[in-house]
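FORM 12-B: Structure-to-Sequence Request
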């Protein structure tokens, strides 16, 4: 009988990278907020944007001028990180940790050979950074890692379940203003597309590996 090689160990460096990025973000926030804190706008006056499926659709500029050290929402410190004294250049950080357990009884309705039943854990991690250099230029990047633990069904760790690292979104925006009320925005790069009910075009967020598209767009 041939010798079966043991399965390779999980890449623990990915977990280290995620933890390191989170710690670094907290350090940046902790050092930046006292320097740039202002007392102009009260926390109660702020209307924060709702979290979106596409984090690139969130605009956290509403936190400009707010004393983030006094708000009751800890995440404000990650959503508006001023990079200059006048807060004209700023950074938004975002992320998601999703764990989901699945169990199949009688896989393929019992037609698989040999017959199989299996339970396993699906993990997906996302980390994003949104840099606004000016009202006319912006760069957004988001990475993703997807893993399947103990999935022994046919296909095993297929690409539908496992993608150890990839850029999910990565694009730049250039805005050309037309007067004070309108403008033309050019976008190029990689992006999840979210249209309507998402039956035809959408990222398929429930899946372990979301869909993404490469290309360019212009919007008025």
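FORM 12-B RESPONSE
SEQUENCE OUT:
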């Amino acid at each position: 009988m041939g010798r079966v090689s043991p399965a390779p160990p999980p890449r623990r460096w990915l977990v280290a990278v995620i933890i390191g990025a989170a710690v670094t973000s907290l350090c940046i926030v902790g050092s930046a907020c006292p320097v740039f804190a202002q007392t102009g706008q009260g926390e109660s006056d702020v209307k924060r944007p709702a979290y979106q499926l596409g984090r690139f659709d969130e605009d956290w500029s509403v936190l400009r001028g707010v004393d983030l050290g006094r708000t009751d929402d800890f995440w404000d410190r990650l959503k508006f990180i001023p990079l200059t004294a006048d807060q004209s250049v700023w950074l938004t950080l975002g992320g998601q940790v999703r764990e989901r357990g699945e169990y199949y009884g009688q896989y393929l309705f019992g037609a698989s050979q040999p017959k199989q039943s299996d339970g396993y854990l699906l993990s997906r991690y996302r980390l994003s950074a949104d840099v606004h250099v000016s009202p006319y230029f912006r760069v957004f990047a988001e990475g993703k890692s997807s893993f399947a633990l103990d999935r022994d069904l046919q296909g095993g760790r297929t690409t539908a379940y496992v993608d150890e690292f990839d850029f999910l979104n990565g694009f730049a925006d250039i805005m050309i203003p037309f007067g004070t009320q309108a403008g033309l925005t050019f976008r190029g790069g990689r992006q999840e597309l979210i249209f309507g009910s998402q039956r035809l075009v959408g990222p398929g967020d429930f899946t372990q590996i979301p869909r993404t598209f490469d290309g360019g767009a212009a919007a008025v």
